[in-house]
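Duplicate of #3305? Posting structure anyway:
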């Protein structure tokens, strides 16, 4: 495989990882928004529960009580739906994380293989340099020995 092909594969893996990272960030943003909406609904329910309790203590007519209860039942359904939305969003984040991690492993593999190749090239260059140094030293000693004869 040529160095150009290798570089293109490595860059493609990095691009895929970056794209998956953006998708992960988007999924996390959606999940966080769903959680915030759920918190708002839960706070709203607690507020209406408190209002109902206060109204009950102060005395409430049957129509208002029925209205409160209907509203709270609808609010409970909305909370259940939002809990499902949070769960779905969390699963999407987990899926996106798994995809991103897999692509990051691919990028890490390219990096490790590049490091190994560089180390191997450095060792080969060191061996060539050592061989040249040895030959130079041998020639120098032979020239000195030749002059001494």
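Output from current build:
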């Amino acid at each position: 495989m040529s160095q150009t092909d290798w570089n293109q594969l490595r860059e493609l893996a990095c691009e895929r990882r970056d794209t998956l990272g953006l998708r992960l960030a988007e999924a996390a943003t959606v999940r966080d928004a769903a959680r915030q909406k759920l918190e708002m609904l839960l706070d709203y329910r607690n507020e209406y529960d408190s209002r109902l309790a206060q109204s009950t203590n102060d005395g409430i007519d049957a129509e208002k009580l029925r209205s409160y209860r209907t509203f709270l039942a609808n609010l409970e359904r909305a909370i259940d739906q939002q809990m499902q939305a949070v769960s779905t969003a969390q699963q999407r984040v987990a899926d996106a994380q798994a995809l991103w991690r897999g692509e990051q492993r691919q990028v890490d593999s390219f990096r490790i293989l590049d490091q190994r190749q560089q180390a191997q090239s450095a060792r080969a260059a060191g061996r060539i340099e050592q061989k040249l140094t040895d030959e130079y030293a041998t020639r120098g000693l032979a020239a000195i020995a030749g002059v001494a004869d």
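Confirmed duplicate; merging threads. The mean pLDDT is 90. The chain has one domain: 3-148.
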